[in-house]
Amino acid sequence: MSEAEEYALMFVRSWGEAVLRQAERARAMRKKFAVDDRNYERMEDWSPSEADLERNFRTLWAEEHTLVWSAYQLERWRARLHRERGQEAPSQDKVLATVRNALEHLDEAEFEEGGFAVARADRGNSGRSLRELPGGGLPIEVGGVLFGLIAPEEVEARALKIVSTIEDELERDAIEWYMEMKREEEREMRAISRQISSPPELGA
């Protein structure tokens, strides 16, 4: 194995493991976001505050952005590993690439009323990734269609699909840990759904 191939394999494994960790973080934050949003509407003493919801928004936005970035890096290093091995690189996931590029250039955007980021007219070709999104821009929102293009669960699914193709290059215990964690979280979400209609007793 050449030195370049060794480094490519190392980065594939690094980003593959990062995707597993980040997918768990993003899913946990989506759960907190949803639960706090429902409890806020109750307007009880124990309900989260508006500041709590704003903090949740900022955290979830960053977690989802980081998941996209991690998945994109994994895809690029997987392609590099294939090239180092003399194999044809897998086709690029254009959705991940477009979303990642739009997020990278978000600081160059204009922001319209209602939270919609569009490419600045004076930046020429640098705003192309924003223009390629549905509606020609990026909605600044969470909790629905992620970044105006795909559901959060689909970002995770796309990332995990990449991981599954190179799982022989990863530690199998990391894959097994993630799948068990996902099953456990699904059980917890079902339990929360049953309990959420019954607010906790004050002083409990």
Major sheet: order of its strands?
1-2-3
Low-confidence stretches: 197-204
Order of helices and strands: HHHEEHEHH
| Count of alpha/pi helices | 6
- Biggest beta-sheet profile: 3 strands, antiparallel
Distance between the termini: 60 Å
Estimate the strand proportion.
Answer: 5-15%
Percent helix among the residues?
Answer: 55-70%
Categorize the overall geometry. Answer: flat
Task: Tell me the radius of gyration.
Answer: 20 Å
Strand segment tally: 3
Secondary structure blueprint with pairings:
Layout: H1 3-40, H2 50-84, H3 94-104, E1 109-112, E2 116-119, H4 128-131, E3 137-139, H5 152-165, H6 172-195
Antiparallel strand pairs: 1-2, 2-3
Helix pairs in contact: 1-2, 1-5, 1-6, 2-3, 2-5
What this model shows, in words?
By secondary structure, this protein is mostly helical. It is 62% helix and 5% strand. The protein has 6 helices and 3 strands, in the order αααββαβαα. The chain has helices spanning 3-40, 50-84, 94-104, 128-131, 152-165, 172-195, and strands at residues 109-112, 116-119, 137-139. It has a 3-stranded antiparallel sheet with strand order 1-2-3. Strand 1 and strand 2 (116-119) form a beta hairpin. Helix 1 (3-40) runs antiparallel to helix 5 and helix 2 (50-84) packs parallel to helix 5 (152-165). The longest helix is centred in the N-terminal third of the chain and has 38 residues, at 3-40. The radius of gyration is 20 Å and the shape is flat. Residues 197-204 have low confidence and may be disordered.
